[in-house]
């Protein structure tokens, strides 16, 4: 069987990763491919949910515990040809082998994730996922301070104290900034 391909969409927060993920998945739906979309739940619940982009496009997603990415292999349908994964950086390291297994079955994987946390450190297994990927889309945002290309996520100085690497937040907690305006807090 021909190996599937892995596409990684990365970049800082507010760079449109989820919008791009949904755009690619919707193209495959139009092409009559069978897709399944997964996202991690950091509260370790299993549920159905939607992945919604800022432009309000949405697709139904299966929410699985971030500590058990092997559930993707258990939940995959026999006819599924495309697996989408949002926020892939939150999964534990087994996610790399899960992707390898999907690829070896001929399934194409399209995943979106942050490669750096707000301190500029590696997020999750993004290094290994980028290395085994066939295609990489690296998106940028706009620096809230100078308006140049933003590639970094900034924890807001005036926000509440950050308690660890995994803090799910939105525009109230984070900004996109350029390298010059990024501060490690
Ligand atoms: Zn800047």
TrEMBL record:
Residue sites binding substrate per the record: 166-169, 174
Binding-site residues for ATP, renumbered to this chain: 11-18, 86-89
Pfam families reported in the protein's UniProt record: TK
Gene Ontology cellular component terms for the protein in this record: cytosol
Alphabetic keyword roster: ATP-binding, Cytoplasm, DNA synthesis, Kinase, Metal-binding, Nucleotide-binding, Transferase, Zinc
EC primary class: transferase
Top-level taxonomic group: Bacteria
Catalytic center residues: 87
Localization annotation: Cytoplasm
InterPro entries: P-loop_NTPase (IPR027417), Thymidine_kinase (IPR001267)
GO MF annotations, alphabetized: ATP binding; thymidine kinase activity; zinc ion binding
E.C. code: 2.7.1.21
Catalytic activity from the UniProt record: thymidine + ATP = dTMP + ADP + H(+)
Complexes and interactors: Homotetramer.
PANTHER family given in the database record: THYMIDINE KINASE, THYMIDINE KINASE, CYTOSOLIC
Protein name: Thymidine kinase
Organism for this UniProt entry: candidate division WWE3 bacterium RBG_19FT_COMBO_34_6
Phylogenetic placement of the source organism: Bacteria, Katanobacteria
